[in-house]
Structure formats: C-alpha cells, structure tokens
Amino acid sequence: MSAWASRLHRARRSAWYLVAAVLVTMALVAVAAAQFALPWLERNPQAVASWLGERAGRPVAFDTLDAAWTRRGPVLRVTGLRIGDPAAAVPIGTAEIQVAQYSGLLPGRSLTELRLHGIELTLQRNDDGSWQVRGLPGAAHAQDDPLDALQGLGELQVVDARLTIDAPSLGIAHTLPRVDLRMQVDRRRVRAAARAWVDVDGAPLDLRLELLRAQGDGRAYVAMPRNDLQLWSPLLAPSGVAIRAGHGRVTAWIDLRARRVEAITGDVELDALSLQRASDVAQAAVDAPTVAFEGAHARLRWTHTDKEWRLDAPTLRVTQLGREQVLDGLVLAGGRQWAMHAERVEVAPLIALAALGDGVSPSLRAWLQAATPHAVLADVAFAARAGGPVRVSARIEDFGFSPVDERPGLHGLGGTLVGDGQGVVFRPDPDARLVFDWPTGFGVPHPLRLDGEIAGWRDGDGWRIQTPGLRVEGDGYAADARGGLSFEADGTRPRLDLAADVDAAQIPVAKKFWVRHTMSAAAREWLDMALVAGTVRNGRGIVAGDLDDWPFGVEAGKDRRGVFFAEGDIADATIRFQDEWPAMTRLGGHIRFINDGFRLEPSTGELAGVPLRDVVAGIRNYGQSPVEAGATAHADATQLLALLRQSPFQAAHAETLDALDVTGPTHVAVSVAVPRHAPMQLDGEVALEGVAMRESRFDLAFDHVRGPVTFDQSGFHAEALEAQQDGHSGTLALRAGAGHVRQRANAFEGELDMSLDASALLARAPDLTWLRPHVGGRAPWQVQVAVPDAPAANGAPAAHLLLRSDLVGTTLRLPAPLAKPAARALRTTIEAPLPFGTGDVLVGFGDRLALRARTSGARAGIRVDMGRARVDNAAPAAGIVVFGRTPVVDVLDWIGLMGGGDGDGLALQQVDVTTADLRLAGGRLGQTRITAARRSAGTDLRLDGAALAGDVRLSDADGAPIAIALQRLHWPAPAAKLDAAANATPAAPTIAGVPASPPVDDALDPASVPPIRLAIDDLRYGAVVLGRVDASSHRIPGGLAVDRLQVRAPDHRIDVTGRWTGRGAAARTAFQADVESENFGRLASGLGFAGSIVGGQGRLDFDAAWPGAPNAFQVAQLEGSMSLALRDGQLVEVEPGAGRVLGLLSVAELPRRLTLDFRDFFSKGFGFNRIAGEIRFGNGIARGDNLVIDGPAAEIRIRGSADLTARTHDQDIEVLPKTGNLLPAVGALTLGPVGAAVGAVANAVLRKPLAEMGARNYHVSGPWQDPKVDVVERRDAAQPATAPSARPQSAN
C-alpha cells in the first residue's frame, strides 16, 4: 500500500470517529435538554410565543403548551393557536411545532415545521376567475396573505383537513372529506404537494403546485390514479349528470397566470363509464336511462385568453356499443366568437350526453334516449359572432334515429348542409340509401332516394322547413313533392303542408303505406290479402294541417282542422276478397283516399270468369269502421257454380256442388265487410231468372227456377223459389250453413212443394219399390231434405228425407183400409234416410196405417201398425209384421200383396190385427181378429170372428199349396137394390153381392200362383146353407187348374172346374160349372135373386172361356154355351095390374141373367112346366134358337141373337096360347138375348088383357136400353082365319 493510500485510509477512519463523537455529544445534549429544557419551556409559554412570533413576523398566541422530545427534536403541542391580531385571528384547535434541531441545520431545510390537524380549507374562485385558498392561519382578513406568516414558521403540514371547492360562476360547490398538505413558502415562491380524497376509503389524488407569489403565475399537476369514477360524480352536479359507475385514469397540467387557469392539458384513459341523470342516481333507480361507454381515450388542450376559450382535441376516441367513435381533430371555440371545426364527428355520444342534461325537456329527453339519434358529420365548419354573421357547412353521413312508440325512425340520410344567419339548405345525396322505418305505422322499412333541396329558416319564434321540389323514389314507387313543415316554439307537433304527384306504381305497393296503428287488425289483414296485382296511374295527394290532429278524421272534428287527400286510377287490378275465394281480376276504376278512409268508385272487373260491375270498396274510418266492398253481376248460373266450386263452399258442400249442374240467367249482388276485431262478413243475393237445375245424386231436375237466394260467409238460403218439373209448377226452398238452416244441427235443408207423380216419386225410394204398382196419379207433395252438420258415423244416414201430401189426385190400389180414390184426401208422410238403405223408412197414412221399412241388401223388413200415424218400434230384419186395430181390412188382398216364402214377395212374419169390418172377396164379415206367426218354414194365419173362423197355412216351400181350413164362413146376403139400380146397365159383370175385382197386372204369371187346398165346414150365403166346400188347384204348364170346387148341401150340388193359362196377351181363362138343385127358387133367393122364380128343380150347365185372367171377364169376349133344364116352377109377376104377363130384362142385363137373376120377370108370377134351351156365345154374339117356356097357359118359343158389342136386339118371339081367347096370360121364359126380345114384347103388348091380343109373332130390334117391338102377325079372337096385315104394326 502507498503512503498516500495509507494516510487517506487513516483520515477516513478519523472522520467517522468524529461524526460518531458529534452524534454522541448531540444525543447527550438532547438528553440533557429533555431533562432540563422541556420543563422550562412548559413553565415559560410566553417565551415560546415570543420566539414563534419573531419567526412568523406577527403575534402568536396559544392557550396551552405541552413539550415532548422526538428523534428529530422537541415538539411543542399547543391548543388555541392564533397567528396575527389576537382579536381577529381564528384559533386553531390543535397544532404541533416541530423543532428540527438536526435536519434544520442542513441547507434549504427549515428549523421549524408547523403541523395543523383537522382544519377547514376553502379553494375559492373569484368573479375575476382567480383562485385562492382560505382557512390557513395568519389570514384573519380577506386582504391578508397567509403565506407571509407561514414563511417564517417554516414548512406547513396540514393533516386530515377538509377542503371545500367553491366556484359559483362554474356551479361547483363540493367538499373533499380529507386533504393532506405540505407547503414551503419563501419570499418568491410557494411549493406544495397534497393528497386529496374524494372518498376517505378511495385512492387519493396527487397534486403538485409551484407558484410565484408576486405574479400568481405557476403550474399545477393533478393525477388521478386508476380509480372508481363514481366518486367524482358530485363534480358534475351542475350539469344534472352523475356517474353511475366507471373506472379510469386522468392526468392534467394546469397553467396559471395571475392565479387564473390559463390552460389545461390532460390525458384521459377510461375503461368504462356509465352516466345517468343525477336525480336517478340519487334515487338508485334501477331502470333509469343510462349512457354507457366501454372506453375512452383523449388528449385535450383547453386554453383561455381575454374572454375567449378554445378546446383542441388532437385525440378523442370513444368506444360505445362495441364501436370506436373517432373525434380526432375536434376544435371548439367560444366567447365573443363561436367556432367549430372537425374533419369527422360522430354525434351519437354527444347527443346521448346532452339527453342527460337538465336543459332538455322531459319529452325530448325521453325521445333522445329511446331513439338514439346518430350521425357522422364530416368537414364541419361553424363560425358565428354574437349579434353578427353566422356561417355553417358540413357533410352529413348516415344521419338517423330509431323508431319510438308511434314515432317513425330514419337511417342513412346523407347530404350537404350549408347555411348562414338567415337559414340553412340541405341537399340530399342522390346516391345515399335512406331508410324510413315506421313499425307501428307503415310496418315495413321504406328504402328511399332523395333528390332536391330542403330549406329551413326561422319563422318568428319557430322554424319553417320546406322543399320547392323533392324527388322521392322508393321501392316500386316514386313521387315529386313540394311543401313543408312549420314548427312552433311551443313544443307541439309541426304543421304539414305537402303536395305530391305520384308516378305509376303497382297496387301491392300500397300495402307499405297502411297506417297500421290507426287501422283495425282485421281491416289491415284484409287489405294486405286483398291487393294482389294491378297498376295505379295519375296519382296525386295533398296533406295540410296541424300534425297534433293527425290522423285527420271525423273523430273530435279533426276533419275540419286538416285534410289528407289522395287519388288515382287503377287498371287491370287483381283483388282477393278472401283467401279461400278466387281473386277478382281486371278491375278498373278510380280510388280516393280522404283523411282516415278510402273509397273505390263504381268500377268493373271479373270474378272467376263472372263479369262484375258497380264494384265499390272503402273504409270510412281506419280505426273504427270495417272494410266494405260490394259488386253486382249479370251472369249465367254455370259461371256462378264454377265460382262456388272455387270458394270455401266447396270444402263444406263438395258433394252437393259436385252433383249440381245449373244453367240460366242470374243477377248477383254481393257485399263484403271486415269489421274491427271480427272475421270477415260476406252478404249477398243471387236472383235466379229462369235457371235449369240438375242434381245427379238424386236424379232431380228443375226448370225455370226463379227467385232470390241470399248468402253470406256461413251459407245461403232461398225460401220461395219458383220451379217447374215435367211441366208442373212448384216452390223450392234451399238452406245451407249456420244462421240459414232452421235446425242448428243441420248443415243443409231443402224443401219442395210441387205436384209429383206418385209412381215416379216411389221409384226414388228402393225400400218402397213394393208399393209402386199399387199407387198411381199425381198429388201435391212437400219434400224436405236435411243434411246433418256433424259427419255421419259408421252406417248412419248422411241426410234425412221427409215427404208430406194429402194424396188428392193419387189413387191407392191397396186393400182396405188404404184403398183410396184420387179425389179423396189422405194425410200421408214418408220419412227416409239418404242415401237409401242406411236407415229405416217410415210411412204414415193418416191414422189408418203406419209402417216402418228397412232394407239390408236384398232383404227388406216391414212393420205395419194399423190405426196409428207412426211406427215407433223397430222393423224386422226381413218380412212383414202387422199389429193394431183398424175399422176395415181386406184380408185376402193383403195376403196377396204381402206374398210369402223366400221368393220375390215379403214373408209374413207376424200379425195381430183386430178389425171391425173384415172384407173377404167383397164380402163384409164383421169384427174379426187376425193373427199370424212364422212357424216351421211357413206362416200360420188365424181368423177369429162371428162370421169367419179358421186357419190358413202359407208354406215357404216352392210349390207347396196354401191350405185353408175354415170352421165357418157365413157370407152375408146383399141388401136389396132399388129398381133404378136394378134396371141400370152394369159396367162389369157381377155375382150378386160380390163386386168384381179390379183388373190385375196382365203380366202376372198364373204358373206362379201356388196351389190351394180349401175346406169349409159351414158355408152359408145369407139364409142359404150351402154346406161343406172342398176345393183344390194345382199348377200346370203355363198356368193353373182348378181340379175341383164342390159345394154340397141337402138340396143343392155345385161342381166347378177350370184353368187359367198364359200371361199378358196370351192369357186365357176357361171353366165348367154344373149346378143341380131341388129348389132353384130357394137357391136363387139365397143368392140374392129373391122374387124371380119360385120352386123349380133341374140343372144348369155352363161351359165358357174368355181371353185374359179370370177377373178380366168381358161379355163381348165370351165364348162357349149354357144349357138350362128346369121343371115345375113359377116365374113371378112383372108388373101388378097387367095380368099374368111375361117380363125379360134387356140384353144389357145379360150377365146377371146368366147367373139366374130373374127377380123382375113377373109381378105376380107365371107357372111353367118346363124351361129348356141352350145359348151359344162367340164373336161377340149371343144366339139361342131353341129356348122354350112351356106353361099351362101358353108355350113361348124364342129365337134370335144379340150383338154383345153393339148392344142391339135381333129376336123373334112366338106365342102359342093353349086356351084360345081365354088365355089368362102369355109368357115365355128364356135366357140370353132372345129373352130380352120377349121382355120387350111383354112391355109392349101384354099390358092389355090376353083376350085382346091377336098377335102371334113379334120381332124385337134396336138398342138394349130402348128396344123396338113390332107385331109381325095379328090374329083376332073372333076371326081366327084373318090374314096378317101387309106391314108390321107397333105393339103400342
């Protein structure tokens, strides 16, 4: 080591030792001072106050003094410290004076430090803009400078002070709860550092200040570390805005001149910031409007000189809603002149902030916050001088705002704005795509292109915005508008005065312009659906009025305070009245929109090929009135039917419409209404003017149908349509749908009142086919058809048919009690399901008889209730059952009608009927009970009555005979007929008391008639006991044969055989009858010919045939012969007073004479010994040449013929008296046509006494009803040989 190094090392060591010695000495001195000096100080406070006063340069006083020793030196704690004039100085509660005996010796350090606790400080801005601090000790008066006192006391330290910032001109009055301050003052400057807490629990602000005391110039630095920005919200109170939440960092450099702020340069970095109105924050409102920023970054420079200020923002960027908004380069200036310059400004954040301020009305604030207006302003230049010129220019990009409630929105507006103090002019950018959005109004956005000018200027206290010409082009439409808006200064809506000429456009474009919130939903939906296609030309419109009264309409008299008018011509339009209906096409007319409604003037169009005229439509009031439309048309019914098949009626009535065919002229009137909150209403009427209608399902056809048909959306009805069918007139009623049918459960109802042919009507009902042969003629019928609304279940009928008639005009060829002539009324009802076969058919004939029939496949079942109007019980599965009581029944006819077995007829299953008058083959047998039941492959029929009792067996076996076994059959004798009736010519041959049956069907095959076995134990006819009867028949090829019919009684014997063959024109009947009697007079009397003959015995043989069935007997077609041989009898007298005369009926009575009805031959009788002869029939002639009546008085011989077709006589009668002139009577008896001639002679000549008769031969000729009798030969009783006269003379 060198000598210098060694010496340096020893020096350094010595220095350390010296320092250590000094420190130890000082410590010893401090200990000594603490032990001896501190108590002295406490005992001599005045000495301390004098010492401090000398340092402060002004008086210092305090109330108490405590001294303590610290590492830095002694500390003097005083209370009630007063610096300055003791009378004016403000006492400070607690203060500490640190005597820094060590650090105070160092250069630049103060020997003493003044510490103040909990003082109240005020940073005050004066009216001249200067700032000063009040509350420091030493400033008892306003003009005092506390810094002078603090200069001698050394460093000032303030702990836990409260700082109130008071700037009335700026609207700031806020107190910071805690401030810590250190300040050093010398003669030239003040240096200070502080920390300030806005919230005692938050991070403090760092402040630095260096100020030249004399000039008041200096610079301050403020730094806010990353902190909760909400703590600084009170500083924004004057603006009415408060910070809800946020974090960020702010640093600022403040340049001071003359204690005034001359410039501020700041950096702002915010991570998040939420601003609300101060009142909302104070009330902790949850859903209060909030302006939120995700971040902000700014470098700002604010300067102020001579009442002018300027703000430069070289960097200003705000992030909101995820999008960074750039405001770089913003320059603002104010004062005596105002200016603004910016290359690009996004105004959305500024507007959002402005909406929170107190200077905005509540309604405007609500709109600004909801609409969120936004715009980008480029190349902004604004300059103005108070009371001087104004200049403004900017390019607007994407100006817009969102729709709010019933207010529209706007987006994409661009253009240039230039103006001065007189007004502004905005020229839209033709290339900008503006979108007008009014969801509650128009509903859909409207892309627009604007070209023209819009000018705005002050008009008194308000503004006027107007365009001399603005071209508006939208999607599918365009217009040239002129007019404008007038804004009053009272916050109300503006007045609009606007006119526009509209280019040709497609009709569906109108859907974009419905003011939807003032229209009913139903009307809007209908219009949206209705407008399909077409063109509007020559459109123009005017709007004039205060928008406070919009929409203009009749409500509250608004139609007198404003007007909206638009009109145009529509061409080739397609309008749809309802989705399910075909659209109306080729519509052309004029349409007008007036205030809150519109109307289509009478126009023309087509609907599914139907030409329409007088087409009108409209809405009187969008908000209250329905959409109404109407039209008329003249069209063929075929076109209307095609229209219905394309309408909703097709779905509801497809089967009916598909089966319908109509043609003929019609007139249609239809109206449509779409009310508010209700479905569409359709009303109309179709006038049928001679329409032909065909219905294929039921094979119905009507012609010349006339009358009105009323319809709506639910259906239609026509109550009294005139119609014709087969030349017969009637009325037709049709109803379909709810509100039209009379029964709610029905979907369709139809009624027809018309004269109908019974056979044709029954042909439509397969279940009643069996009834057709027995019904004929026409009668008024009422036909009702009802189709249920509910779908038919399995097997259930789809519809119901009801027919009513009194049957006047219809003949019922049915057994009693249903036999009815055409003129007689019989209330009849028929009920049937549709289609037939799906249910029972009910038929009622008044109270006489009712039946229920059902058909299942080829089988039919019928239940008949006699004496009732309706059958309530079920019909059998097959066959017939009959019950009840009835006044009259023709049993054999009913059996023939019903048939039996499993053949074509209906099997009789069961019968239990009681009748008061049983009719059998024309006879009336009184009260009888008829029962029948099915037993062992057949039907057993039982008859129980006083005149008839027995059993009938109907076998099901093919070819089995019908077995009839009667215990008794007492046939009643007919009542005596009046002479007029007896002398009348019958229309058909009869057996006494047994009227002829009506002709049967010529097509009946006799071979199908089953064999019959008949046995009657006790047969009586009137008083005549005929005894036992046995009969049988059997089938033969092509017909049937009666093997035998035997009647056996003690005095009579009758045997009959015969056959019936062929059918139709080939039918033929033949029979042989042999009658033997011991007393023909008694037999004749018992058979109803009483008084014709008395006594007589003998035989009568009859062998005859005729074409046709047995009951088709006609005298003129008779072929065969009859022989008669009687003896020992007497013919009764014809006419009292004429003596014993002979009388014969005319040929017109021949059929009865052939059955031995001679009751009017004589009035008193003519005895005979013998009557014999034969009559032959053929070719319509009856001839007899050998008929002889031989009696005691005379013998009468008759020969000749009668024309059975022409009904004329050609007969000769020869009278051979046996006693000369004493002959008491002349008579002869014959049968047939010859007898008719003898009767004529008797009527002519035998009225005189026989003694006066000289004639021998007589000739009878002429018609049967008025025969002519001539005397062929006269022989006088006194001159028997006299020759006959040359010419015949009349008997009269």
UniProtKB/TrEMBL annotation:
InterPro entries: YhdP (IPR011836), YhdP_central (IPR025263)
Region (Disordered): 1258-1292
Domain of life: Bacteria
Every YhdP central domain range: 4-1269
Ranges of biased composition (kind: Basic and acidic residues): 1267-1277
Pfam families: YhdP
Residue stretches spanning the membrane: none
Family matches, as PANTHER family: PROTEASE, PROTEASE-RELATED
Name the record gives this protein: Uncharacterized protein (TIGR02099 family)
